[in-house]
């Protein structure tokens, strides 16, 4: 949630910078040729600023998200029968059967349910204490 707000803020700032640049370029073309070189220089600075902003957005939002997505895919592919998992709904269970896009899990109460692979958030931590 926070990353999407930062991304939105970066996009808004970049759009504002582009608008300011265009208005300064229009003002420079109407005022004469003396300020033409300064307006082109400010446009170059603006482009550098925009590239830096998009670089920050890439390294702080897109790259970590892709890395986490790849780790999740590796974890889902490594799951096999007998692994204890947790779903995004908070259901704890043991994998009974692996399908192409889902798992058949058995809960502690003995019931079985089919769960989509994308709904699995992780493996259960090996807990030595018994649940009561």
Would you give an account of this structure?
The chain is α+β, with helices and mostly antiparallel strands and 132 residues long. It folds into 2 domains: 76 residues; 45 residues, SH3 type barrels, CATH 2.30.30.140. It has 2 helices and 5 strands, in the order H-H-E-E-E-E-E. The chain is rod-shaped and about 75 Å long. The relative contact order is 0.09.
User: Helical residue percent?
Assistant: 55-70%
Report the structural category: alpha+beta
Q: pLDDT below 50 for ≥5 consecutive residues: which ranges?
A: none
Averaging pLDDT over every residue, what do you get?
Answer: 80
Q: How would you write the strand order of the largest sheet?
A: 4-3-2-1-5
| SS summary, helix count | 2
Extended strand count: 5
Distance between the termini: 35 Å
Domain count: the total is 2
Largest beta-sheet characterization: 5 strands, antiparallel
Assembly type of the chains comes to single chain
Give the overall shape, derived from the CA principal axes: rod-shaped
Strand-and-helix sequence, N→C? HHEEEEE
């Amino acid at each position: 949630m926070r990353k999407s707000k930062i991304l939105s803020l970066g996009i808004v700032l970049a759009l504002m910078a582009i608008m300011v640049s265009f208005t300064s370029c229009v003002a420079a073309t109407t005022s004469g040729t003396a300020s033409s070189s300064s307006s082109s220089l400010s446009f170059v600075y603006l482009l550098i600023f925009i590239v830096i902003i998009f670089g920050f957005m890439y390294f702080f939002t897109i790259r970590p998200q892709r890395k986490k997505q790849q780790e999740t895919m590796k974890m889902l592919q490594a799951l096999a029968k007998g692994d204890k998992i947790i779903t995004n709904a908070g259901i704890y269970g043991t994998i009974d059967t692996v399908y192409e896009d889902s798992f058949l899990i058995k809960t502690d109460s003995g019931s079985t349910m089919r769960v989509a692979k994308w709904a699995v958030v992780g493996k259960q931590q090996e807990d030595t204490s018994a649940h009561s």
